[in-house]
Specification:
This protein is an alpha/beta fold and 221 residues long. It folds into 2 domains: 4-16 and 88-220, Rossmann fold; 18-83. The protein is built from 11 helices and 6 strands. The protein has helices at residues 18-31, 39-45, 50-56, 61-66, 68-83, 92-101, 114-124, 149-160, 175-183, 197-203, 212-220; strands at 4-8, 104-113, 132-136, 167-171, 186-190, 207-209. The chain has a 6-stranded parallel beta sheet, with helices on both faces. Helix 1 (18-31) packs antiparallel against helix 5 (68-83) and helix 6 (92-101) packs parallel to helix 11.
Length: 221
């Protein structure tokens, strides 16, 4: 296929929700009997699978798994409350408009829930930019122990015939560079989300950027 593909993570990448994610995570940590953490600590320890994040912040694997359904409900309801008015990150609309003008296919690849993403996209009036949303239709507990983003993207690219050399991926976590390395894609790590800049540097993305505006500048140049 001649079309270029641009793959966006959702949380912390398109939507500026890292504070909401921290606050919801603290609600969950408190539910499991652990103290709240700072934004610095959050960015130092946030991880996929999420179980590792809880272990690094004082909650045992058994404790999380024994009460995972209750814990998930705490997180989801808290996040919904904290994120209901979150805006897009600076430069998001400008980058999306540019990608459309350049005939990119644009998708979201996320560990979050499809219906919740759809709701935010409509609220933010940016749904029309995206050709597909590749996320989860479950209750959110699956990402405790494993994630499937690389498998889902490989399947999507094979199904639609996208060339890895014409595919780019951007996100605020360690996942996107890992996916890019495995599939042979161009990757962008964006700071200011859920993972510290020091950790992102170690992940080895093709480009480390501090805003979505920088991505457009790199594409134009």
């Amino acid at each position: 296929m001649d079309h270029k593909l641009f793959v966006f993570d959702w949380n912390g990448t398109i939507i500026s929700d890292t504070k909401a994610s921290l606050d919801a995570s603290n609600e969950c940590l408190n539910f499991y009997g652990a103290p709240s953490i700072s934004m610095t600590r959050f960015r130092q320890t946030f991880n996929f699978p999420v179980l590792k994040f809880y272990e690094d912040n004082g909650v045992s694997e058994n404790t999380v798994l024994e009460r995972k359904n209750e814990g998930n409900q705490v997180f989801q309801s808290s996040y919904d409350k904290f994120a209901k008015n979150c805006r897009t990150r600076g430069g998001a609309r400008e980058l999306l408009e540019y990608l459309k003008e350049e005939n990119y296919k644009i998708i979201i690849l996320s560990n979050y829930l499809t219906d919740k993403i759809e709701s935010h996209l409509e609220r933010l009036n940016i749904r029309h930019f995206f050709d597909d949303i590749n996320a989860h239709d479950c209750d959110g507990t699956t990402i405790l122990q494993s994630t499937t983003k690389v498998l889902r993207l490989r399947e999507y690219m094979n199904l639609h015939g996208f060339d890895p050399e014409k595919t780019s991926i951007i996100g605020d976590s360690m996942e996107e560079p890992e996916i890019a390395h495995e599939l042979g894609l161009t990757s962008y790590s964006i700071t200011g989300g859920g993972v510290s800049e020091a950790r992102l540097k170690k992940a080895g993305a093709t480009y480390l950027v501090h805003s979505l505006t920088e991505v457009k500048k790199l594409l134009v140049s």
